[in-house]
Amino acid sequence: MDYEKRNDRNDEVYSKVIKAGKRTYFFDIKSTRGNDLFITVTESKKSTENGTESFQKHKIFLYKEDFEKFQEGLEDVINKVAELKKTGEYSEIDF
After folding, report:
1. Torsion sign (Cα): 41, 47, 49, 54
2. Residue 58 domain boundaries
3. What's the total number of domains in the chain?
């Protein structure tokens, strides 16, 4: 699910939601008051304790000066995962 949205503070620009089992990932592009863009990545995991559902959230903030290095690092590890899976040494992910 994607959406583009502008609210009164003009801070939320775009969001991408990825549901993955018990986890949901949110990739949000936001803008500062000075119109600089930054990204937040949030992992939300559903858990049940004593019959009560709750969500654990973990968030990272990624600022414009780090976009390129973050992208390079993420692409590198994703490519390495694909390379390692081809060796047959690691199990495939079951969906």
Report:
1. positive
2. 2-64
3. 1
21 assigned to some structural domain: yes
Per-residue pLDDT tens, the chain, 95 aa: give them.
555 554 445 589 999 999 998 899 999 999 998 999 999 999 999 888 888 888 999 999 999 999 999 999 999 999 999 899 888 888 876 54
Length of the chain: 95
The model's pTM: 0.75
Whether 23 is in a domain gets the answer yes
